[in-house]
Amino acid sequence: MGVIKRGNSRYWYIQFQLNGRTYIRSSRTTSKKAAEQMETDWRAKLHANQFLGQRPRILIREAMTQFCASKQGTPNHPALLSRLKVVSQRLPAGKPLDELSLHDLERFKRDRQAEGVSTQTIKHNLGFIRCAWKYARKLGYQVAELEFPEVKTPKHKLRYLSEDEERRLLAELDPRREGKGLRRYAQRDDRIKRTMQDAYDLVVVLLDTGARYSEIANIEWSRINLAAREIHLWRSKVQNETVLYMTDRVHRVLSRRAGGSPGRWVFENKAGGPRGYASVAIRKALRRAGLSDCRIHTLRHTHASRLIQNGMSVYEVREILGHTDIQTTMRYAHLERRQVTAKARDVIDQLNRKNGD
């Protein structure tokens, strides 16, 4: 294929196939001529190594960069670039991949733990390294035989909001609320009003749909059918689509937002694009409401927990949440068991009253 431009990158990318394998990497140059020379050199080196029966070497940083480039255009690409930046700063990324050792990985794990990073984030970081390592091996580079560190995720009590906690949170998000550092509503500029209204509306929709933050924050109006009260939700994380039916308050929120001349996105950023991960206002509201142990994903847990507490099974909730693996939904199973044991008590009480006990 030669040298190509990809996405919005200003650099030329080298991409070609050799013996059934696709090779791709950024040339790190804006000169097409220089990129073509790099392609020629790379092809020659690969031919020579294959002729001599030797695998080429690659630096850790370059292996991770190539892996990210292979995922360009996918929903996960921005997250991979973020992990590339983090990992490159904490691994000896300038040494060959075949010299990467379990000691390097264990030290990376300990350093991240010392920084106070969550266990889940460390697992994502190590998973990224593993994927880059496997991709480099697939391309024919020299890699070390590695055993990756195990990261155990501690089990925590499932956190979801009570009805009172939800009221407190929404009160702290109320776009008309008065508070320290806030002008009276009539004196606020339109940008502040819109920012506060967006945060409130977004939380209401998340509470009543159980969707992931990104699924709602980046949703287009083309996926909203107000007449049928439907949300055609595309779940990029698991690559499936779910049709959700609006609650009354979600319908009110979206109907209000649809008034006037809405753009392409339900929630827009300052440039008119999708909102993206702008969560500062919501996280501050959680702290003001005394919910510092909660995060935005707690809203999804809240939705699922309420469904199960009111009679839905974990299998039904799985469909609502869009989980591909039932094991992910099983974290709510204890709530379902509690409902079952309560029903068992009621059955026995009814029998006892019937028998005069």
Polypeptide structure, described:
The protein has two domains: 2-138, no CATH class; 163-342, Intergrase catalytic core (hpI Integrase, Chain A, Orthogonal Bundle), CATH 1.10.443. Helices cover 51% and strands 9% of the residues. It is built from 14 helices and six strands. The strands form two sheets. Strands 1-2-3 form a three-stranded antiparallel beta sheet. It has a three-stranded antiparallel beta sheet with strand order 4-5-6, with no helix packed on it. The longest helix is centred in the last third of the chain and has 22 residues, at 333-354. The model has no long low-confidence stretch (mean pLDDT 87).
Which descriptors apply to this entry?
357 residues; single chain; 3-stranded antiparallel sheet; 2 domains; 6 strands; hpI Integrase, Chain A; 51% helix; mainly alpha
CATH fold node name of the largest domain: hpI Integrase, Chain A
Strand content: 5-15%
CATH architecture of the largest domain: Orthogonal Bundle
N-to-C SSE series?
EEEHHHHHHHHEEEHHHHHH
Uncertain regions: pLDDT < 50 for 5+ in a row?
none
Q: How many independent structural domains?
A: 2
Given this structure, which CATH class of the largest domain is correct? Mainly Alpha
Regarding quaternary structure, what we see is single chain
Structural class by helix and strand composition = mainly alpha
Tell me the name of the CATH homologous superfamily of the largest domain: Intergrase catalytic core
**Count, helices:** 14
What is the first-to-last residue Cα distance?
Answer: 84 Å
Q: Using only CA atoms, what is the Rg?
A: 26 Å
Profile the largest sheet: 3 strands, antiparallel
Strand order of the largest sheet: 1-2-3
Fraction of helical residues: 40-55%
Extended strand count: 6
